[in-house]
Hints:
This protein has helices at about 15, 25-45, 70-75, 95-105, 140-145, 150-160, 175-180; strands at about 1-5, 50-55, 65, 80-85, 110-115, 120, 135, 135, 165-170, 185-190. By secondary structure, it is α/β, with parallel strands linked by helices. It has a 4-stranded parallel β-sheet, with helices on both faces. The chain has a 4-stranded mixed β-sheet with strand order 5-9-10-8. A two-stranded antiparallel ribbon has the order 6-7. The longest helix is centred in the N-terminal third of the chain and has 25 residues, at about 25-45. It starts with a strand and ends with a strand.
Amino acid sequence: MAIVIGGGNIFRGLAASTKGFDRVSADHMGMLATVINALALQDALEKIDVYTRVQSAIELRQIAELFIRRRAIRHLEKRRVVIFAAGTGNPYFSTDTAAALRAMEIKADVVLKATKVDGIFDADPVKVKEAKHIPELSYLDVLTKRLNVMDMTAISLCMDNRVPIVVFNIKSKGNIRRVILGEPIGSVVQ
């Protein structure tokens, strides 16, 4: 299993750029926030005897391996959890895009998008009480309806490579296990 971790709980580059930060600098700060979260997750997993490796898209030799595709695949073959940090290493690209890109690079079967709601809805369920859950939809539905599931680049990458996306609520107890076991939860984009 590979995990692309975000850093929004610490710093959001796009949000900071709307408040006057230089966009490139803000995105770099966001990438560093993902590294902090990756190290925290690594520590938590290793405390329960799960072997991990953190790979960063930016060079941080003392604390993480540089992302190298073949090395990531080898870690996965050795049944290590690989935690990808620092997004793509480039400003203007979200961790959603990083997740789709890394999924293609390691030949993942599926992208599991953990979120705060129970899948994809026709409107924001946090703001619109009557929002309807959509259990299954196509990539084109997501793109043409501009549903804010993942950014459009990530959706397009998954569509072009025929990698399904499962969007599920990470806050519901047991959902990580359920989605990994292939139980029908959340929403599927394919």
